[in-house]
Design a protein that fits this description.
Helix 2 (50-58) packs across helix 3 (70-82). The protein is of the alpha/beta class and 327 residues long. The two termini are 25 Å apart. It is globular and about 60 Å long. The protein is built from 14 helices and twelve strands. Helix 11 links the parallel strand 11 and strand 12.
Amino acid sequence: MNGVVRTLTTTCDHLRALGHDVMVVSPDQFASVPCPTYPEIRLALTRPGAVASRLRQFAPNAIHIATEGPLGLAARRYCMKAGVRFTTAYHTQFPDYLAQRTHLPAGWFWRYIRWFHGPAQRILVATESIREELRAQGLTQLHHWSRGVDLACFTPQAPPAPEFADLPRPIQLYVGRVAVEKNIEAFLAGTHPGSKVVVGDGPSLERLTARYPQAIFLGRRSGGALAGCYAGADVFVFPSRTDTFGLVMIEALACGTPVAAYPVAGPRDILTGEVGAMSEKLEDAIAAALTRDPGACAQFGAGFSWAAATSQFLAGLAAMEVQAVAA
């Protein structure tokens, strides 16, 4: 489960706990095909009008379109045709991801992003860096929606992963999709001594496992097992240059593990000098992050609350005028 899915799932859980009736229209409810170049992502195939029919039957007070894929397109089409207000969210740097995978200019894909999000009443965005980027694209109806951590799970007291017991220190950890856009090779090819551990799966897993046999690939972990990986590591390495937030960073911090990253959107918005380090040379960021106080990291990570994030999400919806059925 990637960061976007975890964000949406957790937000829905909190909304329901607050007494809201939530209907989710998701790809697992339809036939689907693998996404070209990324088969782990499924693209829903729906008959014409299927999404619109569900929305009319549910009669929501708010419609939020989470992603720009086929289901998001169908919901957008319904809202535009019916004159219904809606909100969207910008979770993923699709122009950069697609540019890396297709070798086409990112500007070509920004045209679609502008078209898709332009009619939204609000676009929910996690960081100021991404808001600045969207403003530069002419998308100005922006609303802050941060992220949270399950503090009952992600804690410094989480039992370390047993695989860490005999590894040379410092243990440098990456958690996330194993895919080209995550820039994992910048981490794996680094020269900082110690052990490199990768948690997650994805389309690049087989290739990277073969190319970097000295690294430890643990596959997908979740819940307490994932928390133990964070808590047992000495530094969390976030090599991505294209994420809009980086949920894994605040989970690592909540477990008392400092973060090393590039000085780009996401890390630049989240990290402070007390809990992490950023540098264009990742080895330097790792060396500096290893000097940070784990207690300060845990305290900082504990400040990211899903309750607060859900309140921000609701405020984005409530900010709309109630005329037609709204986002």
